[in-house]
Amino acid sequence: RREDANQLMSATVDVLISREPVMLGRGSTAMDAARCMTDEGVSSLLIIDESDAASSTPSMAGIITDRDIRVRLVSQGLSYDTPVTDIMSSELVWVEHNQLVFEAMLQMLRNNVHHLPVLKHHRPIGVVALSDIIRYESRNSLFVVSSIFRQHSVDELAALTADVQACFSRMVTEDASSRMIGSAMAVIGRSFKQRLLELAEEHLGPPPVPYCFLALGSMARQEQLIVTDQDNALVLDNSFDPARHDDYFKSLAAFVSDGLARCGYTYCTGGVMATNAKWRQPLREWERYFTEWIEKPTPESLLNSGIFFDLDGVWGKTEWIDGLRRLISRKAKGNSRFLACMARNALLRTPPLGFFKDFVVESDGRHSRAINLKRRGTAPLADLIRVHSLAVGSVALNSFERLRDIIEADILPRGRGQDLHDALEFVSMVRIRNQADDLAAGNEPDNSIEPESLSDFERKSLRDAFLILSNAQKYLKFRYQPGRSA
């Protein structure tokens, strides 16, 4: 029997709560906060409105931690009479008491915070710190993320590759879902990018104008696995002057791209990287790109849309990217011509089923009779889900979250949304387990599997998943016919 192998995957945040949260009125000073932390033996305080002190659901104005006092007060030479509201974090990130410990950890990593208020029925019942999670599950290999930010060179970062593979394999062993694994691998990939950007700025000096580094594709969708290339781009401030500034950003892009390659994220063969000047542009140019791709679809622009419309800000002015996603959503929704073109493109990759619903296999790498589960499975599923999500105006990135919005919009025949969810989860998990098996056998992991290596049940389930994809593609073709209202 495995010894509590999947605790992190099944335990909820409740198990980490050992006491009620310590609260302080927003009219207090930094000295009051420091004394309260010392007296209560805590590293954080929830700041509330004094008028809510006796309420069962006090309104949280912010949170202050011992680190805030060190960094925002002491290191800045501010007086201890400084109001807590001047040094607290007012943009609160929290978790519900019944969320998974794993989800709380990812929330911390995504938002670069170490403390999360825990709510139950809108009432704060505690605060969970990263140190609480570490104590609870110190052996979990996802803490490779914290190791990334402790490394001081590309060589040191590259040495963590084995830890990333161990993290992936352990999550598979612990029966994590494909969504959990994809999200965790994406967080690790983002962390590599972020640390490389920090190192690049240390090496090159501060950037001449603000910028945002983009993750694209599976990393942006939080569906990244162990075998992946790097798709990235740079959005630059509109004050960017190529003659004065491009040398800096060209060097920064090369530093990050080369560093990612050293860390196991191979160069994009299609050139979708910030090292390509076309994908290193001011914000207004990206707005022009996206508008033109939607309003004047061409084969090349449709290919670009399938890549760049899954975009997420990793570093810098990430708020720009929220605006770009809203622009895409606003212009694509209801644009029947563009959606018909996107749908046609989404039908180019078909499931590997023959006339009698038997598997169509091909030679692929070291496999003689195999199915590429990415090219013939998860990628076309993500493609058709993207089209539907654009049609309903969803700004979600993750395919499962997009499916939720699609189901709520009621544009699919009854039950088809859940079928797509189940098909994506199953094909993804077959692909994931196959990659974990490759790692265990000492082989280079890839996306191909030989159907004969599967059990009868797995082969039948995989065939059923591909049938769901096939039927979903037929419906996509019907729904987004040229001239038909989306």
From the structure above, extract its key features.
alpha/beta, 20 helices, disordered N terminus, CBS-domain, 486 residues, four-stranded mixed beta sheet, three-stranded mixed beta sheet
How does this model look, in words?
The protein has 486 residues and is of the alpha/beta class. It has three domains: 7-136, CBS-domain, CATH 3.10.580.10; 141-331, 2-Layer Sandwich (Beta Polymerase, domain 2), CATH 3.30.460.10; 344-479. Helix content is 51%, strand content 12%. The chain is built from 20 helices and 13 strands. It has helices at residues 7-10, 30-40, 66-74, 84-87, 101-111, 130-136, 144-148, 154-158, 161-173, 178-204, 218-221, 242-262, 283-295, 299-308, 319-332, 336-346, 374-391, 399-409, 416-440, 456-479, and strands spanning 23-25, 44-48, 60-65, 95-96, 115-120, 123-129, 211-216, 232-236, 280-282, 311-316, 362-364, 367-372, 448-449. The strands form four sheets. Strands 9-8-7-10 form a four-stranded mixed beta sheet, with helices on both faces. A three-stranded mixed beta sheet has the order 1-2-3. Helix 5 packs parallel to helix 10 (178-204) and helix 13 runs parallel beside helix 15 (319-332). The longest helix is centred in the middle third of the chain and has 27 residues, at 178-204. The radius of gyration is 24 Å and the shape is globular. 41% of the residues are buried.
Write the layout of secondary structure elements.
Layout: H1 7-10, E1 23-25, H2 30-40, E2 44-48, E3 60-65, H3 66-74, H4 84-87, E4 95-96, H5 101-111, E5 115-120, E6 123-129, H6 130-136, H7 144-148, H8 154-158, H9 161-173, H10 178-204, E7 211-216, H11 218-221, E8 232-236, H12 242-262, E9 280-282, H13 283-295, H14 299-308, E10 311-316, H15 319-332, H16 336-346, E11 362-364, E12 367-372, H17 374-391, H18 399-409, H19 416-440, E13 448-449, H20 456-479
Parallel strand pairs: 1-2, 4-5, 8-9
Antiparallel strand pairs: 2-3, 5-6, 7-8, 7-10, 11-12, 12-13
